[in-house]
Specification:
By secondary structure, the chain is α+β, with helices and mostly antiparallel strands. Helix content is 31%, strand content 9%. It has one domain (3-109): N-terminal domain of TfIIb, CATH 2.20.25.
């Protein structure tokens, strides 16, 4: 075979294997393999700080070849991110519904959205807002109004 023919055949067989993989991982055996790798954090963690290292699942944005590369889905913030690995797999190799099928079968891994944290600005450990006279001052809810405190 000539080099161009070999490269074309190699690309076609890789695409065929990827599409077979997309169908296999939706089967019960494939989902069990995804589950095992998910528990070992094999797909990584959510890059968002408030997700507290939530595990992610791979997912594609399209079922068509060569449209998008694979992304990872975080069930806590419900967002998709580009994985940190340098792997440039096609998103069609996982399919656009893997995360939905996975979390339908393994519903115990669905996590509530992240907690809302009250941010208090600080400078060298000292609060710079929230003191009396600051425009960000919030009076205590002890029944005393702001005018009675003055």
């Amino acid at each position: 075979m000539q080099n161009e023919q070999f490269m074309a055949l190699n690309a076609d067989t890789s695409d065929m294997y990827g599409l077979i993989h997309a169908r296999y991982i939706r089967s019960p055996e494939g989902l069990a393999l995804i589950y095992g790798r998910y528990l070992q954090s094999g797909y990584g963690y959510c890059p968002r700080a408030f997700c507290d290292k939530q595990r992610v699942v791979p997912n594609g944005l399209s079922d068509k070849l060569r449209e998008n590369r694979v992304k990872v889905y975080c069930p806590k913030c419900e967002e998709m991110y580009i994985p940190t690995s340098t792997n440039r797999l096609d998103g069609a190799y996982f399919g656009s519904s893997l995360a939905h099928v996975y979390f339908q079968k393994y519903a115990k891994h669905i996590v509530l959205p992240p907690k809302v944290y009250y941010y208090e600005p600080q400078l060298l450990g000292f609060a710079i807002a929230g003191k009396r006279g600051s425009k960000y001052f919030k009076p205590e809810t002890s029944g005393i109004t702001d005018t009675q405190q003055r």
